[in-house]
Structures are given as C-alpha cells and as structure tokens.
Specification:
48% of the residues lie in helices and 15% in strands. By secondary structure, the protein is an alpha/beta fold. It starts with 7 loop residues before the first strand and ends in a 6-residue tail after the last strand. It has a seven-stranded parallel β-sheet with strand order 3-2-1-4-5-6-7, sandwiched between helices. It is globular. 45% of the residues are buried. Strand 4, helix 4 and strand 5 form a beta-alpha-beta unit. The structure holds NADPH dihydro-nicotinamide-adenine-dinucleotide phosphate. The site of NADPH dihydro-nicotinamide-adenine-dinucleotide phosphate (NDP) has 30 residues, from helix 1, helix 4 and helix 7.
Length: 247
C-alpha cells in the first residue's frame, strides 16, 4: 500500500536537489505533486518525472519571497487541485560571507527566500488546511541553524528562524489536525554543496561520524516519514539527518 495514496503535495524548490528528490519520493508513494521553483524549466523537468511515475503534476515558476506571486499561485493550485495535504517548504539559497563584509542585500535576500518564503507559502495554504482539518507542513531547515557556521550568519539565522516558525505554527494549528515539523539536513550532495573546496570537504568529513556526505534521497526519506501516517502523533519536532554530525 502506497503511504501517500492520492494525496496532493506542494514542494517548493522542487526543481533540483533535495526538493526534486522529495517530489519524486512522494510521487512514488502515490502523491500528486505541485512542483515550484524559480525557473519554469526546472519545475517542468521534475513535473515530467513525476508524471512518468503515474501521478499528476503541476509545474510553476514562483519566487517564494514575493507575496503577490505566492498568493496567486496558491489560489491557482487550490482551484485546480481542489485541496493540498502536504506542504514542503524547501526553497533555499546561500549568500555566504563573513559578518564584517556581508552586504545588507545578502542578508535580506537569504532571509527573504529561506524564512519569509516559508512564512508566505505556509500562510497561503493555512486556510485550506484549517478548513479540511488536516495537513502536514514540513520545513527544510539545516544543522547550520542549530550550531551556526562562520561565513553563514545570514543562512544560520534564517534556518534557526525556521525552527522557531515551525514550533509556533505547530502549536497554532495542532488543535485542527495540522502538524508542522522541520528537517535539519547536514551536508548533502547537491548543487548547493558542489562548490565546496576539497580541503573544506575533507575537514567536514572528519566531523561526520558516518564518514560521508548525505544524498538528497536521505532527506526525501525523512520527509516521507513526516508526511506519512506513521508520523500522525509527531509535531513541532526537528529531525536531524546529518550522518551524526550534530549530537
Ligand atoms: P539547490 O540549490 O540544489 O536547489 C534549490 C532549489 O530552490 C531550486 O529548485 C531553486 O529553484 C529553488 N529556489 C531558490 N530560491 C527560490 C525562490 N526564491 N523561489 C522559489 N524557489 C527557489 O539546493 P538544495 O537542494 O541543496 O537545498 C534545498 C534546501 O535544503 C534548502 O532550503 C537548503 O538550505 C536546505 N539544505 C541543504 C543542505 C545541503 O547540504 N545541500 C544542507 C542543509 C539544508 P531553481 O531550480 O529554479 O533555481
């Protein structure tokens, strides 16, 4: 029996990496998927892969930090799909730099995408979740939001903020049958980490007890658990998936 049979999932940042893996994992478990990324081309490609798994897919280009675009997209999705059962706030970016040299723009862009984006998209679907008295919200945070990282004060603040956001939403919506949880991935092989210099990669590996970087599928497996019936009684939690890096 498929774990997400006939459910409808919205995944932001579904065009590549972790979001793509989540979209495909959910489709393989019977969900229809709304694929959102910045570029239509990337959303389209993943939607084609979802359809190849026998599920319905929608492909949208939406900047999650833009309130009007998010509201319009949510209205369109709810009109066409009729309901949404699972929301994964995965869209995220980095603009790294040391505090002393970080521009206001790099701070704002990261906060707007990683934190405000999750707020806007969650808010846009909350009325529907409340009305149907069910829903699963899954926010992709990061271990960097738990322990910080030199050169990433903007990213760490956005990902730590996402944890507080998740816990507050979990408390607000629990009585209506809606859960909200976060996943804190460690270092995962995607475009985001492809540019890591060799020395930094070697130093990182020394801090990971399981001795390797994670794969996007590792995060997709955790997201599937939080979306599945098995996590019915789990809310407000942060599930760390990092090879043991933070414990
Ligand atoms: P990628 O850079 O591979 O992909 C990011 C995705 O987010 C892309 O599809 C991109 O769209 C989309 N996106 C970026 N900005 C926006 C925006 N403003 N509006 C809509 N979509 C947007 O990232 P990863 O797969 O590596 O990361 C996914 C999430 O996981 C992020 O939140 C990241 O912070 C988090 N994470 C990643 C870790 C890692 O090691 N990789 C570790 C911990 C957390 P497009 O395809 O159109 O460019």
């Amino acid at each position: 029996m498929s774990q997400l049979a006939n459910q409808i999932a919205v995944v932001t940042g579904a065009g590549r990496g972790i979001g793509r893996a989540i979209a495909l994992k959910f489709a393989a478990e019977g969900a229809d998927v709304v694929c959102i990324s910045r570029t239509q081309e990337n959303s389209d490609k993943v939607a084609v892969e979802v359809r190849a798994l026998g599920r319905r897919a929608w492909a949208l280009a939406v900047d999650v930090s833009d309130s009007l675009s998010v509201t319009a997209a949510a209205e369109k999705i709810l009109a066409e799909a009729g309901r949404v059962d699972i929301l994964v706030n995965n869209a995220g970016i980095t603009r790294d730099g040391l505090l002393m040299r970080m521009s206001d723009a790099d701070w704002d862009t990261v906060m707007d995408t990683n934190l405000k984006g999750a707020f806007l998209v969650t808010k846009a679907f909350t009325r529907a979740f409340l009305k149907q008295r069910s829903g699963r919200i899954i926010n992709i945070s990061s271990v960097i939001g738990l322990i910080g990282n030199p050169g990433q004060c903007n990213y760490a603040a956005s990902k730590a903020g996402l944890i507080g956001f998740t816990q507050s939403v979990a408390r607000e919506l629990a009585s209506r049958g809606v859960t909200a949880n976060a996943i804190a991935p460690g270092f995962i092989e995607t475009d985001m980490t492809a540019e890591l210099k060799e020395e930094l990669r070697a130093a990182l590996l020394k801090q990971i007890p399981l001795g390797c970087l994670g794969k996007a599928e590792d995060i997709a497996g955790a997201a599937l658990y939080l979306a599945s019936p098995a996590a019915r009684y789990v809310t407000g939690q942060v599930l760390t998936v990092d090879g043991g890096m933070v414990m």
